[in-house]
Design goal:
Strand order of the largest sheet: 2-1-3-4
Number of helices: 9
Largest sheet: 4 strands, parallel
Oligomer: single chain
Order of helices and strands: HEHEHEEHEHEHEHHEH
Number of domains: 2
Radius of gyration: 19 Å
Amino acid sequence: MKNLLSMEHLSNDEVLAILERAREFEQGAETKLQRSYYVANLFFEPSTRTKTSFEMAERKVGCTVIPFEAGFSSMLKGETLYDTVKTLEMIGLDTVVIRAKEDEYYKELLEGINVGIINAGDGTGQHPSQSLLDLYTIYKEFGRFEGLTVTIAGDISHSRVAKSDAIALRRLGVNVNFLCPPEWAGDFEAQHAWNGLLEESDVIMLLRIQHERHDVYFSKENYHQQFGLTPEREKQMKEHAIIMHPAPVNRDVEIASELVECGRSRIFQQVQNGVFVRMAILETILKER
C-alpha cells in the first residue's frame, strides 16, 4: 500500500489491518517507523478536521511537516499539480496529503511521481481517510460489521463520504440505506422518507448539506422538518443505535443542535478516532517509502 486514493483500491484485509493498528495507537503503541519522514499537506479546499487531524497524526508518528499554503503556491501562477508535487518530491518529501476540487485529481500523479499520495478528498469523489475513521468508530461500538444496518442521510450525490462509506461498508457485510430528497440521490437508490429507517438502523449517519455545490436555493427549515434528525425521530431509534456525522455540522438543518452531543452521538469521538486512524494510514504508507 504505497498510496491511499480510494476505498475501491483497498481490500478488506488492508482495511482491517489499518483499523487494528489504529486501535493499537489508541492504546498507546509507539510507531514502528525507523526514521523521520517529510510530509506536506496540500489543501486546495477549506478544512478544519481533516487537515489538523493529519497534522497531528504526522507529528505523532514522528514526521517533519513541511508547511504548504495553497493560497501562496506557484499553482496560482499556472503551475500544474503534477509539477508542484514533483517539485516537492525533488526537495526531499516522502509523502503528500492532498485535497482538491477536481474528482480523481490523483490520476495525473500516478505516472512519474515517486512520493506517497494520500487522498484527503477529491471533489465529489472519495474521502478514504474519513471512511476509515467512520469504520473504526462503528467497529469500536459494535465489535463487528456483518449484519449491521447503517442509514446515510443527506446530500448524497455531492458526498465523497457517502460514496467511500458505501463501498467499504457493503463489502464488509453492512446493509446500507440512503435517505435524501429525490434530486440529491445521484446514482444511488435512495429512500425519500424516514419510514422504517429509524427503527431498523444501528447507525444513523448524517451528512452536511454542501451549500457551495448547489445552484438552487433550498429551505433549511423544510429540509430539517422532512429529512433532519429531530428529537422526536431520535426517540424512535434502536436503544443501542448511534448517531454519526463527518462534520462540519449544520446545526438544526441535518441534525437538531441538542442531539450533536447527546448520549447517542459519536460525532466528536469520530474526530478523536481520526487521529489514530490517520497515524495508522501514514505508518502503513511511509513504511513502503
